[in-house]
Every structure is written in C-alpha cells, then in structure tokens.
Amino acid sequence: MDKSVTIIGSGFSSLSASCYLAKLGYDVTIFEKNTTVGGRARQLKKQGFTFDIGPSWYWMPDVFERFFKDFNTTASNFYNLEKLNPAYKVFFKNNETIIIEDTLEKIYKAFENEEKGSSEKLKKFIEAAKKNYDIAIKDIVYKPGISPLELVTPSTIKKIGQFFSTISKEVRKEFTNKKLVQILEFPVLFLGAKPSNTPAFYSFMNYADFGLGTWHPKGGMYQVISGIEKLARSLGVKIYTNSPVKKIIVENGIAKGVLTGSKKINSDIILCGADYHHGESLLSKKYRQYSAAYWERKTFAPSSLLFYVGFDKKLKNIHHHNLFFDTGFDKHAKEIYDDPKWPTAPLFYANFTSVTDSGTAPDGKENGFFLIPLAPNLEDTPELREAYFKKIITRFEKLTGQNVIKNIIFKESFCVNDFIDEYNSYKGNAYGMANTLLQTAFLRPKLKSKKVSNLYFTGQLTVPGPGVPPSLISGKLVAGIIESENKLYNKPKLQVV
C-alpha cells in the first residue's frame, strides 16, 4: 500500500510538493484553511473586475518551465504567457520617469539616455549577473539546505567574495545616478531584504529582471495556481478547502496525523506548507525546533498594505507594472528594517493588469492593485489604511497627471492583520524570511524536522527563500528528501539537483 502524505496549506510550495509526491506514488491529501486553493496567491473578483490578491510578478519563467517539464508537460498547456513590453515604468520626483522595456538592448539604451557611459557598465554588470544566475540555478537553489558543503563547488568558490559584499556596494561602485541605482536595487525587494544587507551574489535577480524579462499569465497570476492545481488533481492529489488544521499529532516523537476540525486524519507523513512558525505552533512545545527567541532574532521580509481599486475609466500615463520612487528609498527601507514604523513618505507599487489583459476589468474601466511595503507587526487600523491610501493616490494623481479619486467605484484593502488572520503569517509578514547572508541556504529553517520523525516543512521561510519560483523549488526539494527517507518500491526516483 502506498504511503500517505498529509499537506497543510495549498500555496505554491505545497502544490509543487504534492505533484512530485503523487508522481512518486504517494497518496497525497492537502488541507487548506481558506475557501480557495493557492495560499497567499488568491484572487478577488468584484463587479466584473479581477485582482490577484497576492503575487503579481511573473519572473524566472525558466523555473516554471522546469517544473512543468518534470511532469512531461509545459506551462502553455495550463495558461497563456505574454512577455510584457514595457516590463515596467518607474516614476521619480520632478515628473521624471524611466521605462524598462523587454530587451537588454532597449534597457542599455534607456540607461545611456539617463547617464552617458552607463550602458557599458550595465552590460558588464548584467554579464556578471547572468553568470551568478547560472550558478544559482545549477549549484544553489536546487540544493536542500542540509549542509554548508552544498555551497562548495568550483563555481561558487570563485564567487565567495560576493557573499561578503552587498548588492548596494556593488551597484554603487559602478553607478552614481540615483535613479539607475534605485532600479538596480529594486529586484532585491523580491528577496525580502534591503540592498545593504543582501549578498552581492544575489545580483542574479537583476538578470532575472533585465535578461529574462517580466511576463504575465493571461487572466492573472492565479491562472498559474489553477494550472498547478489541475496538474495535482490529475496526478491523484486530493484537496480540501475550508479545512484548517488545528494540531499535528505526534506519538513518541513520530508524526502520526493531523486534527482538522474535530476529525483526526491519520497519515504516514506530514508536510507543513503553511507559515513555518505557525506550523511549529501546531506541535506540543517539546517538539518545536525553534524557540520564540529564535524567530524574534530573524530578519523578516516586509508586510504590505494592499489596495484593490476599481476605476470607472481607463487611466493615462501608466503601464501594467509601475514603481513610484519619488520619495526616499533609503528612508523607507530604514523604517521597515531598522526603526520599524509606518513610513513617513512611502515608496509604492501599482499594477494595472487591465492595461494588457482586457479580461481583468469591464470595458472602458481599469483595475488597480497598489502596494506599500511595511515593517511587520505594525499597528493596523482602518484609519491608518485610509490615511495611507490618500497619501499614495494623491501622489499617483500628481505623477501621472490625471484626476482619479472621483472615478473610484470601490476599494478593498489588505494589511498586517489580514496576513495574520488569513495566512497565519508571523507578525503579518508578506514574503517570508529575508535572504540575508546569515539567512541563506543551510542557515534557513530546515525542510525536515529535527525533533519529529516523518514531519517536514516547505515554503518561503525555508529553503531556498521568498518568492514564487523559490516556492516551486522548495516543494521539489522537500519531496526529494521525503522520497530519500521513505523509498517506495518500483517507483521512479525524483531528481532534485
């Protein structure tokens, strides 16, 4: 009889793991606390508008393709991708803007127009970033974080110095123009840390940005979740929504099942894809690997204040993705990481999928997704949310040269309290644990419990880190560890490297 696996949560990492485990012959069941599959990647539909509630950027398409290839299929069998051109638009003070287009040559030209000589510097920077990307994909991100020796390869040894410098230092060695510096430091935000704390090696995210481009699944990011859910079900995975897990049952140091509602579900293996801190809270204290002090010491990625806004007209001077860097980047970062408080003058991001995907808003109307990065664990009240919406929408009007406040049909918000309530997120973080030097690879919380047999973890608080592509990889890594310890007879071996 096949061994049973119970998975807590249905985000990208859980769905990924479920597919790999089902392919290997395990009897896999997912329990999701919310009404829909997807974890933090959910969808809001209202009055003909469609919004991705969570992830809204599709980067590193090669990782998605590698995932689907493992099941002898392709992403195009589940959703349609469009490469965005432009990828995004950046607004600065004094009504200055820079548009990042869809090819390196166009981006080199944009840099050169901003600062003479910068295109050659950017070419060298991106060449180095591509080498880092190739090393990251080949030698780092598909390693399970068990031992520091995983990082020791001929390629990584040559890059050792980049783990002790930072993105901020490396960018500022070559570029002095503040606008270009901000654009080059921006991708690090996907790693959940500020550039001055992120190893220089992570410049591979700049290659992901400029070299691989920004893509959009028609219908929104939730189409990716729907596609992976369809794949999982086709492999025999059973999924139950509205089914929060209340407890992980452990007997004599061995995971035996879960308690969902008043029902006990027996299982040979438990995999927690929910927030790692929350997953450990489902255990008796003696079985938790990490103390409250451990979590308190860690650097967490920001939380976010999000708004989903329906406009009754098409908007001007915007693109699909828009970054508003018209205020102090460093000051906002300090107010997230060093002196946590509501930001004085926040940077923000705005997404209008209806600019390129007409199906996400009614004809002649626009959908707006606005995001302000925040320190985790801040006070969250309706009054604060409204005050900050007024701050950013006023700036939005000024920077884009149009009046929009009177054209708002509705506005929904999501913030710290919602991340805690909806996702059991530690301190309401939005992206997991930051990838700082001391929180990289084997230094992150482990995929396998050290205290409970047959208990495993996956997701953005563990290996390899925050973001959608890393979450897909995390699911593959944990499935590989489970298979290495619970080999099923006559089943294909799962390759994780």
How is this structure best summarized?
Helices cover 33% and strands 19% of the residues. It has helices at 12-23, 61-69, 104-114, 118-140, 154-158, 167-174, 178-185, 204-211, 222-234, 276-281, 292-297, 329-337, 382-400, 416-423, 468-485; strands spanning 4-8, 27-31, 43-46, 49-52, 81-83, 88-91, 97-100, 215-217, 238-240, 245-251, 254-260, 263-266, 269-272, 303-311, 321-324, 348-351, 366-374, 408-414, 455-457.
Number of strands: 19
- Percentage of residues in helical conformation: 25-40%
- Average pLDDT reading: 94
Shape call:
globular
Query: Strand share of the residues?
Result: 15-25%
Distance between the termini: 28 Å
Uncertain stretches of 5 or more adjacent residues: 492-497
Largest sheet: 7 strands, mixed
Task: Give the helix tally.
Answer: 15
Radius of gyration: 22 Å
The assigned structural class equals: alpha/beta
